[in-house]
Amino acid sequence: MKDAKGMTNKQRRSPAPDPAPNPASATAAPPAPAATSAATSAAVTRRRLLATAGGVGVAGLAVGAAAGYAAAPGHAGTGTGADSGAGGYAGVPLTALGADSVPFFGTHQAGIVQPAQARMYAAAFDLTAGTARPGLAALMKRWSAAAAAMAEGRTPPGVTDTDVALDAGPSSLTVTFGFGASVFAKAGLGARLPEQLAPLPAFPSDALVPANSNGDLWVQVCADDGLVSFHAMRTLQQLAAGAAAVRWQMTGFSRSPGATERPRTVRNLMGQIDGTNNPKPTDKAFNTEVFVPAAGSPAWMAGGSYAVFRRIRMLLNSWEQQTLTVQERVIGRYKATGGPLSGGAETTTVQLDKLNPDGSLAIPGDAHIRVAAAQSNQGAVLLRRGFSYADGFRPDGAPDAGLLFVAFQSDPLTGFVPVQRKLTRGDALSQFIVHESSGLFAVPGGAASADGYVGQALLES
Amino acid sequence: MKDAKGMTNKQRRSPAPDPAPNPASATAAPPAPAATSAATSAAVTRRRLLATAGGVGVAGLAVGAAAGYAAAPGHAGTGTGADSGAGGYAGVPLTALGADSVPFFGTHQAGIVQPAQARMYAAAFDLTAGTARPGLAALMKRWSAAAAAMAEGRTPPGVTDTDVALDAGPSSLTVTFGFGASVFAKAGLGARLPEQLAPLPAFPSDALVPANSNGDLWVQVCADDGLVSFHAMRTLQQLAAGAAAVRWQMTGFSRSPGATERPRTVRNLMGQIDGTNNPKPTDKAFNTEVFVPAAGSPAWMAGGSYAVFRRIRMLLNSWEQQTLTVQERVIGRYKATGGPLSGGAETTTVQLDKLNPDGSLAIPGDAHIRVAAAQSNQGAVLLRRGFSYADGFRPDGAPDAGLLFVAFQSDPLTGFVPVQRKLTRGDALSQFIVHESSGLFAVPGGAASADGYVGQALLES
Predict the structure, then answer these.
(1) Model-level pTM?
(2) Under the phi-then-psi rule, with left for phi > 0, alpha for psi from -120 to 50, and beta for the rest, what region is B443?
(3) Which candidate in A100, A126, A224, A274 is catalytic?
(4) Given B126, B161, B224, B274, the catalytic residue
(5) Can the peptide bond before residue A31 be classed as cis, meaning omega within 30 degrees of 0?
(6) Average pLDDT of B434-454?
């Protein structure tokens, strides 16, 4: 993904449906993966990996929980260990990266509250002509079954597996599905379009490329291994054949587990620690800020969330020419520690009204953390879960790099919209970024078990 | 990078040189990184990370060596643990990913014998007009000093640091530099052009894009953390400003440490285990196969190697439609285990003459491992160190994905060239791949210490 021209390269159709099974093949007609000794040994390998992981995962959870962050619901283990407090460095992973898993089934979809994995793909699909509600329901069933299997390190059903992820374990794979506003009319569900999916307002700083924005369906694939994430994304593409085609796809990355002292301290490509002010699963209001309540509206969104996706290019050539002092005043935090300019460590509460000895605001009036703060936006809270991207360079020589911004909230009209509206007016950071893609998606609650699938309440009830 | 059109987007110039230091800045004039408390605390963090890592790294090396592979010279620790033999799964990393380091200084450059890290950038730079031998020497000095610092998790000198890698440790960062044939005349070194840099012959299956091939200088940046690798590549770009500009840049990935049972079993995007037949550092002939001997010619290449770089797109839509049996016969190995079709496990010696009960060859005549085997090519050996790439899709809907092939050898005329010549004639795999980029680079020996730099013997003697 690069510019308006390059971006057209991201538009595509799904791969052609598989041809009729070749009678000469031992495995061309799924599901019969155990028909060869090779496939059997692979299955054994996977089972062994997972069986051994079980015990270790429990230990990982216990210690991770003590750190106060990795206790996010639904995470079976932590990729990195908590700080032991003895010697200051305890980044040694407690569980093997490959064996770590995140359950697919649950009240909420996976990939929302988990710390960002090392690798991410985001993609939008558009329904192909002729796909209506039954076809969409069938696709969501196929996708859910495949995502559930892959999240456990099993071979996905319904497709001849590419084997790319074989022997790697789930590697904390999460797959998250969303519905864009455009899919409702296409699937004959116009009456069910949530008001929360009203188009985001146009912001003055937007430079959106339509072909790389929006879309009928949204998929977020994250894992701690690059081959596992590629395998999952590719599998979903194959399963979409005939029902939906990729509209755009982008690739992101975040910290590898174990690279930093604390569990995955994440910096963005500007060098700034990101996500500090995120709501925590332990916060009282976390669930209502992020998830639609069980009695919420529409009913089929119970346990769901709304995802705002933005591709935000950073003007790194310009940013990097700023002095450290300027950069820190733009953000409102010290770059090295993440501590606010009002004093303290990264997690110290920001004192927006603190003054310098000369009477000026310690955190400048246009500092990003001031303008984006909940206090400045009627308590608006977003659960940000962004990933960096770096796709080389643009024709003008500038890096094509920045942030794949993903934010979850129970209602975008009280979450992203007021915050972004304020940011585009007064944020000092805005001169160093350009919003190039945008999407808003309804992310339904999770499937409770293999008897259901994501979106079932929308598509069947 | 996508097609002939998209690829032009990868052409670029380096970022503009930094402006004159702003007098209002505390840190704009390097080297004075300790001028602020923030910078100081960052330095402390890094030192702590490294100090603690030391002891763990030693343990990692000892156990890793027992596994017979990770004993590659120059690797201070292993990213993943060796198989303990008890319970079959021991992928728990022995050292923290971030703290693991690979020394920059040594007889050979880093990034050749080390197992492939999780993240990789490859880039070629062209000298800017007016850059001659002194300018090139100065650039290699800056680059070497920065690479050496970053390999130890220190802030790179000579540039205002972007801080993107702050607090992440070296994460096994390696930076490898090479010289393309075109740089010799430009830098007034025409008489020193090694005969080994004669242009690779045109192979019938090539579909090379010139703008994404060759180049005056080649840089390979690898690390186990995405932010560390981005930081290093970006730093090198900044340090090149005024002397050289990026010609092309590509992004690759490999297995994350800990994702697989064995230390980093790597599959390519076709799902096949890759690199099995690679020469091992413990092989008798390894050094002469991979490195130019101390008494070799030209003398400035002592301890060096020649890198062949190819961007090989995989025709995945077509490949994935083949049955498992067909795929295995194309490669000559079982997909799940990597064992040869002649029998045994992944590391079992291939029996090229073994026959099936019906008298046919167990490993077909056009199987990739037969055609590429040293026995089929007068003993030609390559040290392959490839990375997968996945850059979305091409305009025709096909995945823009495949292999960034990197192969090191002491002489390409007895290494890559005869192998590739044979492959293009008889390899069953050739119908599923397209070579789109190519480069051949002289990779000099390493700098012995901070008193020297990579390329010094070429540029100063």
Answers:
(1) 0.83
(2) beta
(3) A274
(4) B274
(5) yes
(6) 97
